[in-house]
Design a protein that fits this description.
single chain, M1 Pyruvate Kinase, Domain 3, 9-stranded mixed sheet, globular
């Protein structure tokens, strides 16, 4: 039996993740997942690809607030989990890859806090409900499919068997957080999830649209905020390369909204 074994959200793109027992599926991903974003003075998104130290910021949900703590400086800021903005506040355009998205700066005091700790200019912005970032058309299931600030898709699924197989090929085993999934499943064969075209988690339907091409972020130790070497990319490249991409995990689009929980059964409806 294939089951959902872990649920993760990353409220601020490229910062630490939060492990949940249950989560609400929305029209653009899991609730609160990558709705916030750090950008530079030009509005370009900041990422661990260039700034591995972003991993040191750890978010935590505390009631109606999102607390973000720097694990080395041991400083914490707090912001409302459910953001609202004055009608007089002006949206700004921010860039995630080729997409221009309208967002609000959360608070200049919070932006100054990030800038001080990072040592360079950074602003924390939020994607409001009225900002609709479309999924790339050739991978969308419907014309209405939208995304948060994630790289390209609302959800990422990885099978625990896939990580176990990868770790069996490496000198040192890596934790799942290197790959930043939203969903982890147990009970299937290694890499089986990359063949799933349509499946259910509990009562909700998901579509596998594209295996995930991996980048240098997988080489960053998420606890220390530093690059740990060339693995897992070096090992994955030996047997998981297709074209110019090193693949690990499956990008998903959801259909409908509702609750998913650890332990939910996964039923594959269509596979390739």
């Amino acid at each position: 039996m294939v089951q959902l074994s872990e649920i993760w959200i990353y409220p601020v793109k490229s910062l630490g993740g939060i492990k949940l027992q249950e989560a609400q599926v929305t029209d653009r991903g899991l609730e609160h997942d990558r709705r916030w974003l750090l950008v530079d003075e030009n509005g370009l998104f900041l990422s661990q690809r260039e700034h591995s130290e972003l991993a040191l910021f750890q978010p935590e949900i505390a009631g109606d607030f999102l607390n973000i703590t720097h694990r080395v400086q041991l400083e914490t800021i707090q912001l409302p989990l459910h953001q609202s903005f004055s009608e007089t506040k002006t949206k700004i355009d921010v860039m995630v890859w080729e997409d221009s998205i309208q967002a609000y700066e959360v608070d200049s005091v919070i932006s100054d806090w990030f800038s001080r700790i990072l040592g360079f200019s950074a602003r924390l912005v939020y994607m409001p409900e009225e900002s609709h970032r479309k999924v790339e058309a050739k991978y969308a299931v419907t014309e209405a499919d939208i995304n948060s600030f994630s790289d390209g898709y609302p959800f990422l699924l990885i099978g625990q068997s896939s990580l176990d197989d990868l770790n069996s090929r490496m000198k040192e085993a890596l934790p799942m957080n290197r790959f930043r999934p939203n969903f982890v499943c147990t009970g299937g064969d290694a890499y089986e999830e990359e063949s799933w075209k349509e499946f259910t988690i509990g009562e909700l339907t998901f579509f596998g649209v594209k295996p995930c091409g991996r980048c240098v972020m997988t080489t960053i130790d998420q606890e220390k905020g530093v690059t740990s070497g060339k693995d897992p990319l070096r090992t994955l490249a030996k047997y998981r390369t297709v074209g110019n991409s090193v693949l690990f995990g499956q990008n998903l689009i959801g259909s409908g909204t509702g609750l998913v929980a650890v332990g939910d059964a996964i039923a594959v409806l269509i596979s390739i």
